[in-house]
Amino acid sequence: MSDNDAGSLFERIERGEIPADVVRENERIIAIRDISPQAPTHVLLAPKVRYRNATELAAQDPALLAELFLVAGEIAERDGVAESGYRLLFNTNADAGQTIFHVHLHLLGGRPLGGLVDGPVPE
Question: Contact, 57 vs 67, CB < 8 A?
């Protein structure tokens, strides 16, 4: 899925234009269940302010980047995957599989995830 003039997928979800299973939301972050999960727990965490990728977010708002990781940890605890283990993943730019150019963090857990990467995580 690519971006368009109507806004990114996450902006449209936040505005209520697209339904989503929102698992957490605050003034700066929205977290939703992935509609095509790659693990029993597969949550996408996105800042409400749009940054193109993780590098842009880190350069412009490192505190928000840290907040994404803290919220991901809280969701992992709540979903019962914190102790057994979970993966946090950013796809950055097209060759890495990024198709939604609004930075978002994948939280995956609930099953053994294998080696470094099992393959691309679709968006």
Answer: no
Tokens encoding 58: 């880190």
**CATH number reported for the structural domain that contains residue 29 in this entry:** 3.30.428.10
pTM for this prediction: 0.87
Say how many domains are in the chain: 1
Residue 81 included in any domain: yes
What digits encode the pLDDT tens for the residues 70-116? 999 999 999 999 999 999 999 998 898 888 999 999 999 999 997 65
Question: Sheet containing 86-89: which strands, arranged edge to edge?
Answer: 22-25, 29-33, 41-47, 105-109, 86-89
In a domain, 1, yes or no: no
> CA-to-CA distance for 49 and 16, rounded, in angstroms?
16
Residue 77 contacts by C-beta under 8 Å, 6 or more apart in sequence? none
- State which residues form the domain around 37: 9-109
The active-site residue, picked from 42, 102, 104, 106, is 104
% of the chain at pLDDT higher than 70: 89
Our answer to whether residue 106 is catalytic in this structure is no
